[in-house]
Amino acid sequence: MTRDDLVGMLAGQTPACGPAREALLAGGTFDIGGTLVPARRHFGVFRRRLQRTRRIGVEVPGLAESVVIFEAAGDEGLRLGVIKAPDQIFWVYFNAAATMVMACIGGRWQGKG
To answer: Would you give per-residue pLDDT tens digits along the chain (113 residues)?
Structure first.
């Protein structure tokens, strides 16, 4: 997959997609893993993280939307990718063939002031 391919796939699935796209365009690096993990596993993990972040007042871009996406995807295998920029990190979840972004989480996190 090329950088341009990934930029084109980040089409607003979650609020973190736009900042992830901008990080790539600004020279951020990316890597896509080869292991498939059922979406339901991500759902369980990220549902707990969402509860915890809400409890402590931290806003993680794309987290709430991704939890909904993972629940709906059920047993579908997802492939994890990471986009890294100097001051940001994004976790990008692809379909099994890595031809479509399913969800994106990350960026700059905001906590209670």
So the answer is: 999 999 999 999 999 999 999 999 999 999 999 999 999 999 999 999 999 999 999 999 999 999 999 999 999 999 999 999 988 999 999 999 999 999 999 987 655 54
Q: Going along the chain, which residue ranges are E strands?
A: 29-38, 77-85, 88-94, 101-106
Going by C-alpha positions, the residue among 59, 63, 106 that lies closest to residue 82 is 106
Helices 63-73 and 39-56, interaxial angle, to 10°? 150
Check residue 69 and report its DSSP letter. Answer: H
The SS3 of residue 94 is strand
Closest CA to 41 of 74, 13, 79, 64: 74
User: Residue 86 and residue 90: Cα distance in Å, rounded?
Assistant: 12
- Tell me the one-letter amino acid at 18: G
What are phi and psi for residue 24, nearest 5 degrees?
-65, -45
Residue 67: C-alpha distances to residues 2, 26, 50 (Å): 27, 28, 8
